[in-house]
């Protein structure tokens, strides 16, 4: 396993429709080269063997860059490959089950949408980061409940890293960073761009400049 949770930066999330299997590792390498601090393997397809093979390749890429690989939804896959952690939504395993399976060193992220009460409960449980959103219309998951940027500031008192997700681009990310997001989680706004490395670098620089523009 790589080190624990990064403090701030770009959280790159893969998408099997956007990134064909023969391009996904290269695309993630580009994101890492541009400064992505954490990667999530998100793949809803039912082929366990294929998903395991891709996840192993992504883990190797993340290890080359010393960055954590998080597996979406699938605690068993995270455990099988020795990933750094798992991301869980309301319909997935509980963070407590994941902690039991993955151990004390694993990074466990939870979806909170716009729900500060859920965030408070999760912060006193097994979560290592709290994810809020979607903040903008999302090409990947338009059906995700929407959230207002205020929730990021309100969640600051909970003491865990706050992840913002949903329709984020280099243009709209600064408002979320100013509102308190520690990590910006992006699919389309990163992996559908012509130059993934340059886009990742732009996201990364927003943190260095305090998103002042
Ligand atoms: C960083 C991050 N935040 C939120 C999600 C969404 O998780 P979930 O609500 O379980 O939805 P799916 O991604 O499983 O469709 C996420 N994956 N990552
Ligand atoms: C998985 C998920 N959960 C809330 S929005 C979203 C999709 C994020 O993808 P994009 O960055 O393309 O909007
Ligand atoms: Mg999920």
Describe this structure in words.
This protein is of the alpha/beta class and 213 residues long. The protein has one domain: Aldolase class I (TIM Barrel). The protein has 9 helices and 8 strands. Strands 1-2-3-4-5-6-7-8 form an 8-stranded parallel β-barrel, surrounded by 7 helices. α1 runs parallel beside α2 and α1 packs parallel to α9. The longest helix has 18 residues. It is globular, with a radius of gyration of 16 Å. The termini are far apart. Bound molecules: the ligand Cc1ncc(COP(=O)(O)OP(=O)(O)O)c(N)n1, 4-methyl-5-hydroxyethylthiazole phosphate and magnesium ion.
Q: Which properties best describe this structure?
A:
binds 4-methyl-5-hydroxyethylthiazole phosphate; magnesium ion binding; 8-stranded parallel beta barrel; globular; alpha/beta; TIM Barrel; ThiamineP_synth_sf; 213 residues
Compile the SSE list and pairings.
Blueprint lengths: L8 E5 L10 H10 L4 E4 L6 H18 L3 E4 L2 H7 L3 E4 L6 H8 L4 E7 L2 H8 L5 E5 L16 H5 L7 E4 L7 H7 L3 E4 L1 H4 L4 H13 L5
Parallel strand pairs: 1-2, 1-8, 2-3, 3-4, 4-5, 5-6, 6-7, 7-8
In helices, the fraction of residues equals 25-40%
| Radius of gyration using CA atoms only | 16 Å
The backbone outline, from C-alpha atoms, is globular
CATH superfamily: Aldolase class I
Low-confidence stretches: none
Amino- and carboxy-terminal Cα gap: 36 Å
Counting structural domains, the number is 1
CATH fold annotation = TIM Barrel
Q: What is the strand content?
A: 15-25%
The averaged pLDDT comes out at: 96
């Amino acid at each position: 396993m790589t080190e624990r949770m990064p403090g701030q930066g770009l959280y790159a999330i893969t998408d099997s429709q956007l990134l064909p299997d023969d391009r996904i590792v290269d695309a993630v390498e580009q994101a890492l080269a541009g400064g992505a601090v954490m990667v999530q393997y998100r793949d809803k397809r039912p082929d366990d063997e294929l998903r395991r093979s891709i996840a192993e390749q992504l883990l190797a890429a993340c290890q080359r860059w010393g960055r954590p690989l998080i597996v979406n939804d699938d605690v068993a896959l995270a455990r099988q490959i020795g990933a750094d952690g798992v991301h869980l939504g309301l319909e997935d395993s509980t963070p407590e089950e994941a902690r039991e399976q993955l151990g004390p060193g694993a990074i466990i992220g939870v979806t909170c949408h716009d729900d500060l009460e859920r965030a408070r409960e999760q912060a006193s449980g097994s979560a290592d980061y709290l994810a809020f959103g979607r903040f903008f219309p999302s090409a990947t998951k338009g059906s995700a409940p929407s959230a207002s940027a205020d929730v990021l500031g309100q969640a600051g008192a909970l003491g865990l890293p706050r992840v913002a997700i949903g329709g984020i681009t280099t243009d709209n990310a600064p408002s979320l960073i100013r509102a308190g997001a520690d990590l910006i989680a992006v699919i389309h706004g990163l992996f559908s761009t012509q130059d993934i490395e340059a886009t990742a670098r732009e996201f990364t620089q927003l943190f260095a400049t305090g998103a002042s523009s």
